[in-house]
Write a structure and sequence with these properties.
Length: 220
Amino acid sequence: MRQLILDIRPDAPPTLDNYLPGANPEACNALCAAANGTAAEAVIYLWGPPGVGKTHLLRAVAESAHALGRQAHYVPAGEPVPEAPFGLLAVDDVQTLGEHGQIALFDRINSAREGQGVVVAAGDSAPARLDLRRDLTSRLSWGLVFALQPLDDENKLMAIVERANGRGMDLPQEVARYLISHCRRDLPNLLALVDALDDYSLSLKRPVTVALLKSMLNAD
C-alpha cells in the first residue's frame, strides 16, 4: 500500500458530541455530567479493548470540562499523574502506571472522594483484573465502571459516512460496506482508510468506487 495510506490528515478533535455511543449511552451520559460538574460519583472508570474509544472519551471529557471553565487535565499513557487535585482529572491506560503513578492516582481518587474534583480513568481490563496495587484497583471500582462495547456494523457505517461527509467526500454505500466487510474492522483503521481513500481519489482525479478502493489497497 502506498505511503499515502499513512500520510493521513489529523483526526477532528475528539468531543463528546462526535463520539458515536452505540451500546454505550450510559457511559457518555456519565461523562457529560462529569464535565459539567454534576457527576453522581467522584470516580468513573472505562475499560475495553483497543478501538472502543477510551482515549477519545478521556480527551473529550477533559476538553469539555475545560471549555466550561473548570480546571481539567488529561494524562496520556507514560506521563506522570499530577499530585495536585483538579476539577476533573482524566488518566488514560492505567495498566501502564508505575509505582509512583499508582500512588498518585490513589491519592487523587481519595481527594475526589473527599469532594475535590472528579477522576475519570481508563484501562484495558476491569478493575479487579488490572495488574496494579490492590488498594488502587479497589478504589477504581468504587464509582461508576463501564465496559465499553465496540460499535456494530451499522454504527460503523454511520461513522464512516460521517467522516466522508466531513471531508466533503462522495462515498457510495457500496464502498462503505466494502470497507467494513473486507478491511480490518476497528474504527480507527476504518476512518484512516476513508481519509486515505479521499486523498487517493483526489491525487488520481478519479471518483470513489470499489475498484478505486481495491486499487489503493493493492498498491505497493
